[in-house]
Amino acid sequence: MLKQIDHIGIAVNDLKEIEETLTEAFNLFPAFSEEVEDQLVNVLGYNVGESTIEYLAPTSDNSPVAKFIAKRGAGLHHIAYRVDNLTQTLEHLKDKGFRLIDEKPRNGADGKRIAFIHPKSSNGILIELCEVTKS
Ligand code: CMX
Fold this sequence. Notes:
By secondary structure, the protein is α+β, with helices and mostly antiparallel strands. 23% of the residues lie in helices and 40% in strands. The chain has an eight-stranded mixed beta sheet with strand order 2-3-4-1-5-8-7-6. Bound molecules: carboxymethyldethia coenzyme *A. The site of carboxymethyldethia coenzyme *A (CMX) has 23 residues, from strand 3, strand 4, helix 2 and strand 5.
């Protein structure tokens, strides 16, 4: 059902600082940078080999990422798994009794459709499921 780890999400206060550090340390440049209005975050995405890291900064005090940083500090926020059919995967999890944050796919960064499983239902780790829609 899971194809691969799509990305790791890291909550930060300041994307500019992250960008400067990664450029200075590794000569690494972002693969994409965008605001995801639906999630109240700005996202800076890096590809490292076959892996992707998304740095997330809140765009409002109401952002889930702002609440996360206030409560737990900056750091690992979620793991995202890629699936073939997100709607079907959500139905499967719902049938199994998992607590879903999103019962239907929403728009995420990098043109993907995304949905989250509540961390209370997944051993305290926030899991994102995502489906790649662009070719
Ligand atoms: N990982 C693990 N646990 C988390 C968490 C995270 N990222 N975020 C919150 N929690 C925990 C809290 O610590 C808290 O646990 P305790 O009750 O044991 O203290 C519990 O979840 C409830 O947290 P809360 O602070 O009361 O916050 P909310 O209930 O308002 O929201 C959550 C929590 C997970 C439902 C909300 O953050 C959410 O909807 N997340 C999904 C969307 C999201 O994170 N979007 C940003 C990224 C978007 C992107 O990648 O594009």
